[in-house]
């Protein structure tokens, strides 16, 4: 024993030999288990993916969010159900919904959702039952009626965008609509959540640097998923260091800190559910008033995190869908013209002129299909029972995921899936058939809580834009819009965004 602890004696040599022999043996044992003995060994897929999680890390971190492409390739080779890591399965079958059924009471896969940095907000909560309590405390705030009451404010914000775009009319100067849309989405989501807009639309360049910094987070989140600690270290960084690393990081930091301060002030002035002395209720009041939300979940830090998550979940998604819609319409001028005529006809018919009904407006549907909101896989874990897929039994506690993009680009369901075809939604019976497969807002108990708000933003903004302006693409191609990277939100390779001139 004593010779083993000696740093230079024979013992350290034997320890060295022991370790060098044990490591390969341990690695061989793991490999044998993963490839032949694991309950997932029978599932088809690449041996390398089954052998090690580094396969996914390579595509995510080195290739920058490209595992989705490899997953598509593996499906082509191995069929509808594949093993994509030592621990996870992936299914490509538009008719299958098992992991997303509300009755399945599944958890989110905690490792995968590490990219959000915390499991304290409803979005990142793994456990089904805890999520249910957290979600219930906020969902009354996001109903169709609540969003309809927000209409006048939404109209004010889109009118502001319209005024800002007027500044570009006839100048030949390009307007970056991608930044304008993201800024609009941030202004909407903060105004909706706690009645404060940060007026990002007012900035001369539509807060380009601020939006760029916000957009760095999803990729950093991917690294955090694989290596941990990264977001925690960023959280602890002093201001001066943030300033040196990225000057506009300070604006983002101040923005998130201000959400914390607003939350604190709202909690402080809160008079209780029945007092009615806190004016127009906001989402923080809604959560404070919830009888089922435990006291520890009503803390300032957790409620602020929920609001920050709304911003994170509601900015890039909505902004990007708007960019994709506008791009495809501008690339197909005859479709833009048709939309303009429809909007103007609706304006003549109704006083709520900028709000076409869903039936009138198939363009957002088409871009939600093209863009999909998130083209990331959405893994779930059933901790209660095994799930059946055809002849396969997916063992209990196994993460299983599906990717809505694979359904949205399925040629049998959506012929010519790559083509922007708003007209495919026009025939009512065809539309009913297709809508079953359109899942941009996710499925089941974890589906998007902001669905009605987002839909309203899409329709009102697109109607305003194409009803009022004649725009031309400015040095923008599909390459500037089309997904290449999966950072949970889809990102193109280009950072230029959608730029237009206005006549
Ligand atoms: C076009 C716009 C949007 C799209 C396509 C979209 C898409 C999605 C999708 C696919 C999910 C499910 C994610 C998962 O299963 O992990 C989701 C969840 C969520 N979305 Fe959205 N979203 C949009 C806009 C918004 C907006 C405006 C908000 C603002 C509040 C929002 C807030 C959320 C939240 C909080 C969740 C988590 C819900 C939960 O787990 O209870 N989203 N969204």
Automatic annotation (TrEMBL):
GO-annotated molecular function: heme binding; iron ion binding; monooxygenase activity; oxidoreductase activity, acting on paired donors, with incorporation or reduction of molecular oxygen
Keyword Heme carried by entry: yes
Cofactor(s) the record lists: heme
Domain of life of the native organism: Eukaryota
UniProt keyword list: Heme, Iron, Membrane, Metal-binding, Monooxygenase, Oxidoreductase, Transmembrane, Transmembrane helix
Binding site for heme: 448
One Pfam family linked to the record: p450
InterPro entries listed in its UniProt record: Cyt_P450 (IPR001128), Cyt_P450_CS (IPR017972), Cyt_P450_E_grp-I (IPR002401), Cyt_P450_sf (IPR036396), Cytochrome_P450_monoxygenase (IPR050121)
Residue spans of biased composition, Polar residues class: 345-355
Annotated TM spans: 12-37
Keyword Transmembrane helix: yes
Annotated segments matching region Disordered: 342-376
Family assignment from sequence similarity: Belongs to the cytochrome P450 family.
Name used for this protein in its record: Cytochrome P450 monooxygenase
UniProt lineage: Eukaryota, Fungi, Dikarya, Ascomycota, Pezizomycotina
């Amino acid at each position: 024993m004593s010779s083993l602890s000696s740093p230079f004696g024979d013992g350290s040599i034997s320890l060295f030999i022991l370790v060098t022999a044990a490591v390969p043996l341990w690695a061989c044992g793991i490999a044998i288990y993963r490839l032949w003995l694991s309950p997932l060994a029978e599932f088809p897929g690449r041996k390398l993916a089954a052998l090690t999680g580094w396969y996914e890390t390579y595509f995510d971190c080195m290739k920058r969010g490209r595992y989705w492409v490899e997953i598509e390739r593996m499906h082509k080779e191995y069929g509808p159900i594949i093993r994509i890591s030592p621990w996870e399965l992936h299914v490509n079958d538009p008719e299958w919904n098992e992991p997303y059924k509300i009755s399945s009471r599944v958890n989110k896969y905690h490792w995968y959702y590490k990219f959000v940095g915390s499991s304290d907000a409803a979005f990142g909560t793994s456990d089904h039952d805890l999520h249910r309590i957290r979600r219930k405390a906020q969902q009354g705030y996001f109903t169709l009626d609540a969003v309809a009451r927000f209409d006048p404010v939404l109209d004010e914000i889109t009118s502001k965008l319209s005024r800002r775009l007027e500044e570009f009319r006839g100048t030949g100067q390009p307007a970056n609509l991608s930044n304008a849309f993201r800024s609009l989405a941030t202004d909407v989501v903060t105004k909706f959540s706690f009645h404060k807009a940060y007026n990002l639309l007012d900035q001369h360049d539509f807060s380009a640097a601020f939006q760029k910094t916000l957009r760095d987070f999803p990729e950093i989140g991917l690294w955090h998923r694989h290596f941990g600690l990264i977001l925690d270290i960023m959280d602890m960084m002093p201001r001066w260091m943030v300033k040196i690393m990225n000057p506009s990081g300070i604006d983002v930091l101040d923005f998130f800190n201000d959400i914390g301060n607003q939350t604190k002030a709202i909690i402080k002035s809160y008079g209780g559910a029945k007092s009615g002395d806190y004016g127009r209720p906001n989402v923080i009041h809604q959560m404070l008033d919830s009888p089922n939300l435990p006291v520890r979940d009503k803390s300032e830090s957790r409620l602020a995190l929920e609001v920050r998550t709304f911003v994170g979940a509601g900015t890039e998604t909505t902004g990007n869908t708007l960019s994709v819609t506008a791009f495809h319409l501008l690339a197909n001028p005859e479709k833009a013209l048709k939309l303009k005529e429809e909007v103007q006809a609706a304006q003549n018919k109704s006083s709520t002129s900028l709000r076409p009904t869903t039936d009138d407006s198939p363009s957002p549907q088409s871009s939600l299909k093209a863009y999909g909101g998130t083209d990331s896989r959405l893994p779930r874990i059933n901790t209660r029972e095994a799930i059946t897929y055809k002849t396969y039994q997916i063992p209990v506690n196994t993460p299983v995921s599906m990717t809505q993009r694979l359904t949205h680009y399925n040629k049998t369901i959506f012929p010519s899936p790559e083509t922007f075809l708003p007209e495919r939604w026009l025939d009512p019976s065809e539309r009913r058939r297709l809508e079953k497969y359109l899942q941009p807002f996710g499925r089941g108990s974890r589906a998007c809580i902001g669905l009605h708000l987002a839909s309203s933003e899409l329709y009102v903004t697109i109607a305003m834009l194409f009803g009022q302006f004649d725009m031309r693409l400015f040095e923008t191609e599909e390459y500037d819009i089309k997904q290449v990277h999966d950072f949970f939100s889809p990102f193109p390779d280009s950072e230029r965004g959608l730029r237009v001139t206005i006549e």
